[in-house]
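Quick one, probably user error.
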């Protein structure tokens, strides 16, 4: 017996009609983002491994254990992108986008790859819809980006989502906090997991992301980053909050929110949805003022977010405007001695007039063709038998009302319109 192949673990086939919801959501994203002046960027799925090591950070889970990294035939180390911000920044620098009017406002939609343990809402190939604003340091840009995000979610029908907001400060704030956190955790070193013990040296902020219950309770008494903020960072964060309040955007300050990637500075945010269980984050984002310079460009402040599209679809509200697209509502079937070509010709003429039509092109019995039309959810079947052919008519059967009528070909479109 020949081998039966399966999709790679953690990857999924997205099938119709669900795919129509995916493209519907993406259409809303494009429309909303464009009203804020964002335009689409598409970067390669493959990048130099070093790009992610430098940006996402060596001590993160993503770089430490989740990347799909391999050598190509020339021995170069390449990685399937685990996220898209680093690629956008690489493209911004490489393509000289800083010479265009700033800020650059870019959005992307596409697959990302992380070697994580698959579970509900967590896949090895997943999809993100994201936006990046590069070239403006001010708090109004933070607020506007978050307003855009929430408008997008609102247009999809989400009503009760709350943005969790925090600041991780600028480099000086973080350096001061790293020292304080290290001093606090050092005496409790033996209560930390092996990963966290290592991070105590390399990057103690990462420990705040822990899922370990023991570490969580230990951290409950830890000093908070908010107490180490520079005046400038404090002011920036306060202004972001004031603007969001002015625009009546619901948010909650979460002092422990630090986000899992190294490049964040100042404002960070997340949106979670209760409908999702353990993997409840649908959006993550924040400022990354040092990243463009870190990746070799002229310093440019920036901010962005990434929405997990797979999870977003799992919790799409009932009242969303995005619909499953119906199958073609009309089927054309020939019978008797009428050639199949006639079904195709009639279908083509209806399609030219904007109707969505399936032609029955395999020689089935009329009974089998009707059954198939019924099962696939068609509303009308257009039958062309010998009599219809001779008389220049067709028989239109309405599967919903089980009625049928003879119509001349010229009157067909009008007839379908009337009985709708
Ligand atoms: P991050 O880049 O880690 O901030 O992730 C941003 C968003 O992408 C998260 O809030 C999730 O919704 C989504 N996401 C991240 N990893 C996965 C995954 N393995 N499977 C599905 N969605 C994911």
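Nope, works fine. Designed sequence:
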């Amino acid at each position: 017996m020949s081998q039966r192949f399966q999709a790679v673990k953690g990857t999924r086939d997205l099938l119709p009609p669900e795919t129509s919801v995916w493209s519907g959501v993406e259409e809303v994203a494009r429309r909303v983002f464009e009203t804020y002046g964002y335009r689409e960027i598409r970067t390669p799925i493959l990048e130099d491994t070093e790009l992610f090591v430098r940006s996402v950070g060596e001590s993160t889970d993503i770089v430490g254990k989740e990347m799909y990294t391999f050598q190509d035939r020339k021995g170069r180390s390449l990685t399937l992108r685990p996220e898209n911000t680093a690629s956008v920044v690489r493209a911004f620098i490489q393509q000289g986008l800083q010479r265009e009017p700033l800020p650059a406002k870019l959005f992307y939609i596409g697959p990302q790859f992380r070697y994580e343990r698959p579970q509900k809402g967590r896949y090895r190939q997943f999809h993100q819809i994201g936006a990046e604003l590069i070239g403006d340091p001010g708090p109004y840009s933070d607020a506007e980006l978050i307003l855009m995000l929430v408008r997008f979610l609102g247009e999809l029908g989400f009503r009760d989502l709350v943005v969790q907001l925090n600041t991780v400060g600028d480099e000086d704030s973080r350096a001061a906090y790293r020292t304080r956190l290290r001093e606090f955790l050092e005496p409790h070193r033996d209560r930390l997991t092996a990963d966290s013990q290592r991070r105590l040296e390399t990057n103690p902020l990462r420990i705040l992301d822990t899922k370990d219950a023991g570490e969580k309770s230990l951290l409950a008494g830890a000093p908070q980053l908010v107490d180490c903020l520079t005046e400038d960072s404090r002011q920036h964060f306060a202004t972001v909050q004031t603007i969001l309040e002015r625009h009546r955007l619901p948010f909650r300050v979460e002092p422990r929110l630090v986000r899992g990637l190294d490049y964040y500075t100042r404002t960070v945010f997340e949106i979670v949805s209760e409908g999702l269980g353990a993997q409840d984050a649908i959006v993550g984002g924040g400022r990354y003022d040092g990243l463009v310079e870190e990746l070799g460009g002229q310093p440019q402040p920036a901010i962005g977010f990434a929405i997990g599209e797979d999870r977003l679809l799992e919790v799409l509200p009932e009242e969303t405007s995005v619909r499953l697209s119906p199958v073609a509502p009309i089927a054309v079937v020939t019978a008797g001695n009428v050639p199949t070509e006639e079904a195709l010709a009639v279908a083509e003429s209806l399609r030219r007039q904007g109707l969505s039509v399936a032609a029955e092109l395999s020689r089935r019995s009329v009974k089998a063709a009707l059954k198939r039309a019924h099962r696939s959810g068609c509303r009308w079947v257009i039958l062309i038998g010998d009599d219809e052919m001779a008389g220049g008519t067709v028989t239109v059967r309405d599967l919903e009302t089980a009625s049928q009528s003879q119509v001349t070909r010229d009157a067909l479109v009008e007839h379908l319109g009337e009985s709708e």
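Residues 83, 114, 116, 121-123, 126, 128, 260, 281-284, 306, 308, 310-311 surround adenosine monophosphate (CB under 6 Å).
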